[in-house]
Batch of 2 targets.
Target 1
Amino acid sequence: MTEESELRLLPWVGPEGKPCYLSTNDGDGFMSRLADRIEADQLDTASKLLKHALQVLDHRTGDFDELPLLTAQLAAALGDVLRVATSRGMRLATPEHL
């Protein structure tokens, strides 16, 4: 049986919103590369949303009518970033594996 520490939390959810995991030793496999690319896209999107939100809050661009949509987008991006952080944290070497 594969231990949870050997599984990679993927950057998407499965049916019913349940987490998806990848069990592989091949960090260069198709699914690993796909997950890496999606994680990079998610982090890039979060960075762009943060920059836009800060501009809106500084009254430099946009108007406050867009705040509900922007808030929803920021919440989704935060969820993605937390999933990436959790996945990467789970894959860090523990002291006993160094």
Target 2
Amino acid sequence: MIQVKVFDYEHEKDLEQDMNKFLKSVDEDSIVDIKYHVAAMPEEVDDEQIYCFSAMIVYKK
């Protein structure tokens, strides 16, 4: 059966840590694909940007 695990964080290091933790629990041969996406939006209060780092791991269970 094909399954997905979705991750979504404001900081790339948090995404990296959580994905690595999950990947340790999954057999390497069961990984089908990994999708990665970054979105950036201006913050309304000041001139900083808000980032969203997300990834999806598609795997066989």
